[in-house]
What does this fold into?
Amino acid sequence: MTPFIEVQGAAIPLPMDDVNTDQIIPSKYLKDLHADLAEGFLAFQRRRLDGTRITDFVLERPQFKKAPILVVGANFGCGSSREHAVWAVQAFGICCVIGHQLAEFFIENCLKNGVLPIELDVYEHQQLMQDVILADGHSAVQVDLRNCQIRGLRGGVITFKIDAQQRRMLLEGLDEIDMTLKSMIDIERWERCNQVLEAKSVIERT
It folds into this structure.
């Protein structure tokens, strides 16, 4: 997994609450192994039933093509535990999702795939959303995971919180298996000690 240190670029405003995983990546894109997940990302919001594009929808606007940051409404990623939702976000070029109360499964899947999920309190989230909407993709936002800061718009700085282990996993590009392997020496030491204690217990009983 590629380490996440920081990212800078346009931020996409998506001020919609309760966007679920079936909206993020419709089920028809899950049935085709060769489906373009970038095209599937919010497909029903981006295209009409006849397939024509809704050009004024935010993802279809040129300044947001391959934008690396997505600022969403509350409860983004709710619904199922569908990992394809994060894959679709990544396929579009997004590597950081910022919102208020992101769905738990969505956060877990982000961390497994090297996407940084950031949760802000209500006031900071509303302020950032307003700033991103006003910037309209023409001013860069910087997300710095080392210092846990969002910088750029109007010169302000927002400090965010993230679990220490989750932060380490992203900074070092580690998944859960990698984290376990890093502790292998301690695990093996514990197993040896446990075996000794079990052997000692058997001897004492005989």
Summary: The chain is about 40% helix and 15% strand.
